[in-house]
Every structure is written in structure tokens, then in C-alpha cells.
Amino acid sequence: MKLIVFALFISILLESTLITLPLTFLIILFASVIIRKNEVFALAFFAGLFLDILTFKNIGGSCLFFITIVFIVFLYQKKFEIRTMHFVGIFSLLGSFGYLFLNGVNYLVLQTLVSALVVSASFFVFNKTNKKNLKYA
User: Fold this and answer.
1) Of 8, 21, 26, 126, which residue is 20 to 30 A from 1 by alpha carbon distance?
2) What is the model's pLDDT at position 85?
3) How far is CA 74 from CA 15, 40, 78, 98, 114, in A?
4) CA nearest neighbour of 119 among 38, 31, 40
5) What is the DSSP string of 60-106?
6) Within a 10 A sphere around the Cβ of 120, how many other Cβ atoms?
7) Radius of gyration for the chain, computed over Cα atoms and rounded to the nearest angstrom
8) Count of CB atoms within 10 A of residue 4's CB?
9) Cβ(115)–Cβ(22) under 8 Å?
10) How many CB atoms lie within 10 A of CB 69?
11) What is the pTM of this model?
12) How far separated are the first and last CA of the chain, in Å rounded?
């Protein structure tokens, strides 16, 4: 959990200063798929709040989007196996598109594809390195 919080802190700093990829969204999605605990809602809320403050956006927009995405992931958790490459790839693709569309970013499709590739690659590496720690249904 400490690693996730540190990664969120770094992604908020990077997203508010250097890059426009939704790294914070991707880390929250990754955390909600891997951790599967209600603490992800608090992480999503505070990450969205700090991201909005540092990027001078309307406070609460990112919070609402992040919490909604975490809620939808937890809702799908009861019907589907969410720790698969297909779920993470499609959900990151759709979620990144929605987040970037709401923020009015240039090169929407390119950034969406890059975001989906980044989270899919990191999920693939995580699955290969932590095979014994994952509990599949």
C-alpha cells in the first residue's frame, strides 16, 4: 500500500507539471484491480483532490471521476474476473478516453492508446513477477 501511495504522489506531481497522460487514473485503476479493498476509494478521493488543486481545475471533478471508476470496477468484480489482461486493457482504454475527453486534451486517441499500453504492460509484468501471490477465483 505504501508503494501505491508513493506512486500516486509521483504521478500527481508529474501530471500537474510535465505530462498530460492520466497516470493518476491508471495507478488508481491498477490499485483497485490488485488490492480490491475499500481503501482505494479514499486513495481515489485524495488523489483527485490533490490533482485538481495542483492543476488549478475545478475541485472535485477528478475526485468524482476516480471514485466512479473505482465503484464500477468493484461492481464488475462480482460478475467478472477483473484480474485479467483483457479487463485491465479495455477498462483502461475506455476510462482514459473518458478522462482525457472530459479534460479536453489534445491528441486524445494517441494518449488513450499510450495510456492503455502503459497500464497493460505494467499489469503484465506484475502478473509475471507475482504469480504465487495472486488469488484467482
Assistant:
1) 21
2) 86
3) 25, 10, 7, 18, 24
4) 31
5) THHHHHHHHHHHHHHHHHTTS--SSHHHHHHHHHHHHHHHHHHHT-S
6) 18
7) 14
8) 18
9) yes
10) 21
11) 0.85
12) 22
What is the rounded CA–CA span in Å between residue 42 and residue 22? 18
Dist CA 27 CA 37 (whole Å): 15
DSSP code of residue 58: -
User: Which is it for the CA torsion 100, 8, 70, 31, positive or negative?
Assistant: positive
Specify whether the backbone of 113 is left (phi greater than 0), alpha (psi in -120 to 50) or beta: alpha
Write 1-6 long-range contacts (CB < 8 A, 24+): 1/35, 1/39, 4/31, 4/35, 4/43, 5/43
Regions of the chain with pLDDT less than 70: 131-137
